[in-house]
Amino acid sequence: MQFPLNTHSLLAAFALSLPWAGTAAATPETAPGDRNPPVNQIYPPEAFYHNGKGGRVLDVTKPPFHAKGDGVTDDTQALSAAMRFVRDHYETLEGEGVGAITGQKWGAACYRKLRGTWTIYLPDGKYLVSDTVSQGWPALAFNIRNGWWNVNRVLVNSPEHEKELDPGYYSRGIFDGALVYGEWNYDIQIVGQSRNKTVIQLKDSSPGFGEGEAKAVVSFYLLQRGSNCNVGNFIQNLTIETGNGNPGAVGLKWNSSNWGGVRNLAIRSGDGLGRAGLLMGRNNALGYHHDLLVEGFDVGIELTAGRETTVALEYATLSGQRKTAIRVGGTGIHGADCLSARKILTRDAPLAFSVGEAGHVVLLESELTTKKEEDAAMVVERDGHLFARDISLSGYRSAVLKGTEVALKGASITEFVSDAPVSLKPDGSPQSMRLPVKDWPMILPETDLTKWASVTDFGAVGDGLTDDTAAIQRAMASGKPVVYFPKANYVINGTVNIPATVREVSCMWAGIYRSEASEPDGPAMFRVAEALDQPLLVRQTVTGGGVFLDHDADRTVVLQDVIPFFHHARNWAQGPDMLFPGPAAQNTGVWRSYRNSRPDGATKEVFVNNCMYFAPGGIGKMDALENVRAWVRMVDNEHVPGAQFAFRRSEVWILGFKTENSKTLFQVEDNSRVEVLGGTFLAWEPNQGPLVISRDSLVSMTFYIWFVVPEIIFQDDTKGVITSLPAARLPVVGRKITGYPEGHATDAAVPLLVNFPQ
Question: N or C: which end of the chain has fewer CB within 10 A?
C-alpha cells in the first residue's frame, strides 16, 4: 500500500553528510550512490610483519609473498599465499599451521587461539591474476559431533571430497550428523592502499571462467556447507576487474558471521559479462557495507546466504546489469536473507530489486533508473518482504510487482510495505517513525606518519599479560592525533583517558581486555575525557572484561568494528596462546562496547558501525543505555541475560541487526524513540515473549524472525495501560524451513510494527 508523507510524525526525515575530515558542520543532503571516498591507507613501519617488531600488517609485495603488482606478472599465487598465511596462523604466531592434521580435537568452535589478527595489505599497483585468489585447497573444515566445546578439524581436498564427507547430508547450512559442519574461514582482512590505484585484474579469457560458471576472482569461502563461525572478514579500498571474455566470472565471493564488511570497493566487468559482481551465497553474511560500485554482470549484488544473514548497505551504485541490480533471497534455505539498504543508485538494469522467498529488504532514500522502458523496478515473490521509503524511479512501468500482479505504480514511493503493517493503535494507517538520519563523520586515514603514536614507543609491552594501562595513557597524552596498537594483545586494568588531541584510536584488531575483575558498575577501559566539537573515531578491536568505552565528555563518538567477546563463550577465549592469555575478568554479566557514563548530563551523540554488544542488558540502572542519540549501522547482540537491546530516554535509529537466543529482543523505556529498519532474530526455543517491550515510549520496527516464532511479538505499556500483539496478527507466519521436521520450525516477517498514534 502507498502512504502519504507522515507530516504529523515526530520529526521529518532528512539526511546529513559530514565532510571527509570529520567536522561537525552539516552539508546539504547527499545524493544516492557510491561516494568513492579518497582513502589513502598507509601504515607506520612498525605495523608491518616483515619488520620483525610484532606488527600484523602483511605487505603482499614483501617476503614471504613477493607479489609484483606491475600489471604483467601473474600474482595469483602470491595473493593466495597471503590468505593462506592468515589461515595457517590462526593457532600460533610461529606459523606451525594446520599441516596435515585431520580430525584432531581442537577447543571450542566459536573461538580459537587468536594471538595475532592479520591485515593483508596491497600497496597501489595492478595485481594480475589468472585464477581465484583464495586460501586454497585443502579447505579447513570442522565438525561438532563431540559438542561445541570439543570440535574436530577436517581437511577437505576438493568440492568432490566435501560431498564424500557428507553422504546423504550435503546441503547448504544444514547439519544432521555430517562430518563437515562448517568452514574455518575467519579473520580474512584484505585492505588496499587506495581504491582507484589498487587493482586486482583477471586476465582476459581465463580458463574456468566460461559461460555457466560462477567462479570468483577473489573468494572468502570454498565449501558448499558455509559456516556460522566465519567471523571478522573484510575487504576494502581496492578495485576488482574481471576483464573481457570471462562470462562465468564473479568479482567477489564474500561471507562473514557476526561482524565484517565490504567497503569502498569497485567491481567492474570489462565487457559487461559475468555471473555476479558481489556474491554472498554461503551462510553466513553479516556486516556493514558502504561505498560500492558494481559495473556490468548479470546480477550486481546477490545475497542468498540464508541462515543468520543481515547486511546493512549504504551508498552503492550499480550500473549496466544484464538481469538484476540486486537480488535477495529466493533459494529456499532455512533462515532469511535480510538486506537493509540506504542511498542506493541503480542504472539501466531490467530489474532493480528481486526479493525472493525469505528475502527481507528495507530500502531507503534511493534512486532506481533505466533509460529503456522496463516492466517493474522491484519484484516481490511469494514469502518475500519489502519495506521501501522515499524512492524515486525512472523508466519503469510499475514500481512494485507482487509476483506477476502490479502492487504499486508511479514515479516515486513515499512509503510502501508489501504486507500490511500492524499497529497497537489502529486509528489510522500505520506508518514508520521517520527519525532523522545522519551520516557518520568519515575520518580519513592520517597520511602523515609523524602524527601516529605507537603505544609501544611509550612502554606498552603488548604480550597480553603485562598491564599496559600507564603506557597507553602516555601515548594518549603525546599530542599525536592517531594512537595505534601494533601488537596482538594488551591488558588494561585501569582506565585510559582519551584527550581532545586524539582524533583516532586505531586498535588494529588487537585483543584488549581486563585481567583483573571489574564490577558491573566499574569504570571502562577507555574514557572520552575531554569535550570537543570534532568527532572521535575508535575502531578495530576484540575486547573483554567489562565496558570498553565510557562516553563521559561531550564529544561525538564513532565506534567502528568494536567487538566485545561473546557473553556465552568468554571462558573459551582465555588461557595461554588465546585471545586473552590471562584470566579475563568475569564479574560483569555482559561485556559492552559503550556506556554513557554521564546520563544526567547532555545527550550524547554516537555512531555505531558494525559493532557487537551495543546497549545490551535488561532495564536497570546500570544496564539500559540512557540519554543518547545513536545511529547504528549493523549491530549484533546475542545470548544476553535480559533484553538484547535496552534503551532509556534515548533516540536510536538502527539499520540492520542480528541476534539470537533470547526471550526479549528490545526493551524501550522512559520516553525513548527507537526505529529499527531490518534485521534477523534467531529464536532457538518456543517462548511466550513478549519479544518487544515498550514502556511510555515510541517504536517503529521491521525485522525477520526465524526458526521459532514467539507467541507475543509486542507489548506496549503506556501510563499503565498494557496492550499486546500476538504473533497470529502478523501477515507472514509459518513459512516452512527447508530441511527441518514438519511442525518444528517456521518463520515470520514483521512487516512494519508501530505503537504511536497516527
Answer: N
